[in-house]
Design brief:
heterodimer; A: about 775 residues; alpha+beta; Aldehyde Oxidoreductase, domain 4; eight-stranded mixed β-sheet; 31 strands; about 25% helix; globular; B: about 180 residues; Ubiquitin-like (UB roll); DNA polymerase, domain 1; five-stranded mixed β-sheet; 5 strands
């Protein structure tokens, strides 16, 4: 039996359905990938190169299996990062197949069990792809049912996986009972592989795309999307049944603790002595600047590593400017030309020259970091036959696989990466780099045993990648009515795509390349400001020339947009104040986008917004009595519109700043899961307020100094304000990014509220008591 | 040097052979395979490793295992049995029961990554034992100001935790506010 669906171009076969054979027990419809001609399915000459990766259909597991036991198995290379992606997969697939989401089981992230790569940017790149897979599968199932029931497809209806037509019914399970059916779906795209020409060092991040346009269920008929389907993994997380990446144990496995260099640039002089009387089963293992202590017993590894670290000698190094000198350092740097520039240079220059008024401001953001509660860890088993298996929580197992193969100069086929849940990563593993995986692989290779590497808090807060500091200059032309007519921004930032594996760097093994450069990230919300010019300048990591690569910059939640939006929204708040306009009305005056206007109105109403210009008539910058203020900001990103409204209390004499209430509004198109969206909006606010009030990676001339939770402070429960959520769901705008950007509205809204309370514009974060006190003394 | 120690964990006796200064957390996880409590900071600054010791929340990452000898250790795996015993449930019912705090964590969909939530639930159980009907301010105080450190959540689930603690309180009080 062969059925083909041709779509559009006659030469493109989008799906084929064939019967592989009959089986006595069970049966299933296997939905998998077909790779059309023209995509490099297997490049023989690059077979042995670690740079190569192939799309080999023979080796790829199915995407989806409709099974005769009434269950559906879904395999995806994506990971669950804590936002509820696993629920969204189940909802989207259930919707297109007309089944209950409870019947769907997901296999995530394992490179040997899942077919596609693609990074953790999640919904936009992953779930929507699967929507088409499910839609094609639905068409194939209808075709099978029509044949079995002897009625035309058009007369069939499906409820909970049971097809009805012509007075007869048959379930999906019965349709596949006793046979093995293959549905092949054409894809495009490229396999993930190392590519020195892209900034983050790997190509193929977007995974495979499904070709053609299968009929999909109209949004008006949705039954599962738009409901608050529970996230599947939660009951196990609550009862202790989840197997986390931290729980992997293998026979003969050694526990390792790393002995890191004394500074970010130190090289090894001599490894400290290991007292075998005190630590009889521990061993020191090292390769170049990678030093570790291993033991079958975790506590012995910890204790022995501390003892060895105390006597290990490293060279001195002092190649950092010190975090208090960041702005001075950036100002002194020769940035050259912008690495990315967008907009109309001539028009902006002319508008600024002829404007009756201009506003100029400089905004600064410190280094911050992802700082998960669960630290980096990994287990690796490198066998004498050259195979490597790594257990990870990386949100990009395919990218990690490519980087490990590159590090060991192995064909990528030799490396398997298995994914398990762990702490949120907030972007630091999105490009498949960083982490303890390289440490574990190298130590396993050196010891010939499986090795589990667990980083310490001090190590994670000093040696993991950081979200780089920014300085942005912004200048606006203002007309007689106070409206902004042209705008020029220039942002300056160190490298933000360095996903090299630390273990590889320290051990002197081949490192995947990465290329510094600025990036214009904003999605422009203010269409009435037609003349704009955005320049982004890049520089290498601070301390890049050192043995460790220095402060390795990496993306973090709402990357680039978060920083550039802080500048843009700061400017809009300053512009509103200069115009004597209410900050929300001022935004509305600069856009014709009705979605933005609607969410501004809805959020303002929910917050009982007091419409007036800032600062508040009672704004004060001295005294021990509290000053109160309210401020707002927006961000537009990935087909989603966000508004944040902060209410704050400032005590000028102490510098204490408290956020008392935060209202967040979002229009992200069709809402998939309202409760999960609420939860992600609220938690995003927490991360944004944490950045606004507390977070800063500090460092001296040689090392990071914010290396525990009392030095790298994040928001606590007591500091979390009442958070109110407003959401607009739209059936006619597709799906937007519904969780990530929530953190980006916090900092500019808090800064605006601070200005409202005090009359002082804060242009640098975090607003700690010391910083606030200094600002108010002015 | 390893010693033989007898521990009472989740209602059962366990004999382990470990160095007495080994932190309780590593004994629970590596020897007893109770992986509910998790290693966070390793220095009593985050609360991911919290367990109950005779009903008091302690940080298992810095508590020597010898200190737990003669006391009752409860991890999240043991919470259902604790609740079943408190309510006098028969074993058949007890096997199907979750502690109201765990049920509230599911009902409110608290966990995002979920890594810190084991310690959060332990803190909630301790709080509700002392204060069956805490206000929002009292919940915030308990999760922030109690020694040795605040319970930290990087995903930012604090609002959901507050909702879940109040839901659990209501459930444990038989539906009364």
């Amino acid at each position: 039996m062969t059925a083909k669906t041709e779509n559009g171009n006659d030469s493109t076969i989008t799906t084929t359905l064939t019967r592989r054979g009959f089986v006595k027990i069970g049966g299933a419809l296997f939905v998998s990938i077909y790779i059309p001609a023209g995509i490099p399915a297997k490049a023989a000459e690059s077979q042995a190169s670690p740079l190569a990766n192939q799309l080999d259909p023979a080796r790829l597991a199915s995407w989806l299996e409709i099974r005769s036991d009434n269950t559906i198995l879904v395999r995806t290379g994506q990971a669950e990062t804590g936002t509820g992606m696993s629920a969204f997969y189940a909802q989207m697939i259930a919707e297109e197949l007309n089944v209950r989401p409870e019947t769907i089981t997901l296999i995530l992230g394992d490179t040997d069990k899942t077919p596609d790569g693609g990074f953790s940017a999640g919904f936009q790149y992953a779930v929507l792809k699967f929507r088409k897979v499910a839609a094609y599968t639905y068409q194939a199932l209808l075709g099978l049912a029509a044949t079995r029931l002897g009625v035309p497809i058009a007369s069939l209806t499906v409820t909970d996986g049971v097809v009805s037509g012509g007075g007869k019914t048959i379930s999906y399970a019965q349709l596949v009972e006793g046979q093995q059916l293959d549905l092949k779906i054409s894809v495009t795209g490229e396999a993930l592989r190392i590519d020195p020409s892209v900034g983050w060092g790997v190509a193929g991040l977007f995974g495979l795309s499904v070709t053609g346009e299968p009929p999909m269920k109209p949004v008006s008929q949705y039954k599962v999307i738009g409901t608050s389907y529970p996230v599947p993994g939660i009951p196990d997380k609550v009862t202790g049944r989840t197997q986390w990446s931290s729980d992997v144990t293998l026979p003969g496995m050694l526990h390792a603790r790393m002995v890191r260099p004394a500074t970010l640039g130190s090289t090894l002089i001599s490894v400290g002595a290991l007292d075998k009387k005190q630590f009889p089963t521990a061993e020191v293992v090292s390769k170049s600047n990678l030093v570790a202590v291993v033991s079958p017993h975790e506590w012995e590894a910890i204790s022995a590593a501390r003892a060895v670290a105390a006597t290990t000698k490293w060279t001195d190094w002092a190649g950092l400017p010190g975090s208090e000198n960041l702005t001075k350092t950036f100002r002194a740097y020769q940035w050259g030309s912008p690495t990315e520039s967008r907009g109309k240079a001539a028009e902006v220059t002319a508008a600024l020259a002829s404007a009756p008024r201009t506003i100029s401001a400089t905004y600064e953001l410190p280094y911050v970091r992802h700082a998960p509660i669960g630290l980096f860890l990994a287990v690796a088993d490198v066998r004498s036959d050259g195979t490597v298996t790594v257990w990870t929580h990386s949100s990009q197992s395919q990218g990690l696989r490519a980087r490990i193969a590159y590090m060991l100069s192995l064909p990528i086929e030799k490396v398997i990466v298995r994914w398990l849940e762990h702490s949120g990563q907030y972007g630091r593993t999105t490009y498949g780099g960083d982490g303890a995986e390289a440490d574990a692989v190298i130590l396993s290779q050196l010891t010939g045993k499986p090795v589990r590497v667990q980083w310490t808090l001090q190590e994670d807060l000093a040696w993991s990648t950081v979200s780089p500091a920014w300085v942005s200059d912004i200048k606006a032309a203002v007309n007689a009515k106070g409206h902004i007519t042209a705008l020029h921004s220039a942002s300056y930032s160190p490298h933000q795509f360095d996903a090299r594996l630390l273990g590889a760097i320290l051990a002197g093994l081949p490192c995947t390349p990465s290329k510094p450069g600025g990036w214009v990230a904003t999605e422009w919300p203010y269409d009435k400001i037609q003349n704009r010019l955005e320049d982004a300048y890049g520089m290498p990591n601070l301390g890049a020339e050192s043995a460790s690569g220095g402060l390795r910059g990496n993306i973090m939640r709402t990357p680039g947009q978060r920083q550039q939006n802080f500048t843009l929204e700061g400017l809009m708040n300053e512009g509103a104040a200069l115009a004597g306009a209410d900050p929300i009305q001022f935004r509305m005056d600069h856009t014709t986008d009705q979605r933005l206007v609607d969410i501004l109105s809805a959020t303002a109403k929910a917050a009982a917004w007091d419409s007036r210009p800032s600062p508040h008539p009672n704004a004060r910058k001295t005294g021990s009595a509290s000053a109160t203020g309210r401020g707002m900001s927006i961000i537009v990103r990935q087909n989603a519109y966000w508004v944040g409204i902060a209410e704050v209390v400032v005590v000028p004499s102490t510098g204490a700043l408290r956020v008392t209430k935060f209202t967040i509004g979002a229009d992200c198109g069709k809402i998939i899961n309202p409760r999960q969206l609420d939860l992600c909006m609220k938690s995003g606010v927490v991360m944004g307020l944490s950045e606004a009030l507390k977070e800063e990676v500090t460092f001296d001339k040689s090392k990071v100094t914010s290396t525990n939770w009392s030095r790298y402070k994040i928001l606590t429960m007591e500091e979390t304000p009442e958070i109110k959520v407003v959401r607009i769901s739209r059936d006619d705008q597709g799906f937007g990014g519904g969780s990530e950007a929530a953190n980006a509205v916090g900092p500019p809204a808090v800064a605006a509220a601070f200005f409202d309370a005090t009359g002082v514009h804060p242009r640098r974060l975090p607003l700690t008591p010391a910083h606030v006190t200094a600002l108010l003394k002015g | 040097m390893p010693s033989e120690l007898t521990l009472s964990v989740n209602g059962g006796k366990q004999v382990v052979s470990v160095a007495p200064e080994t932190p309780l957390l590593f004994v629970l996880r590596n020897e007893l395979k109770l992986t509910g409590p998790r290693l966070g900071c390793g220095m009593a600054q985050c609360g991911a490793c919290s367990v109950l010791l005779d009903g008091e929340e302690i940080r298992a990452c810095v508590t020597p295992v010898s200190y737990a000898v003669g006391k009752q250790v409860t991890t999240i795996e043991g919470l259902p049995a604790t609740w079943a015993a408190a309510k006098g449930l028969h074993s058949a019912d007890a096997a199907k029961t979750l502690h109201p705090v765990q049920q509230a964590w599911i009902d409110e969909q608290v966990p995002q990554c979920g890594y810190c939530q084991s310690g959060m639930m332990i803190a909630a159980v301790e709080l509700l034992a002392k204060n069956p009907n805490p206000t929002v301010a009292q919940i915030k105080d308990a999760f922030t100001n109690k020694a040795p450190s605040p319970h930290l959540c990087r995903c930012g689930t604090y609002a959901a935790i507050i909702d879940a603690v109040q839901r659990a309180a209501k459930s444990m009080n038989g539906g009364k506010e």
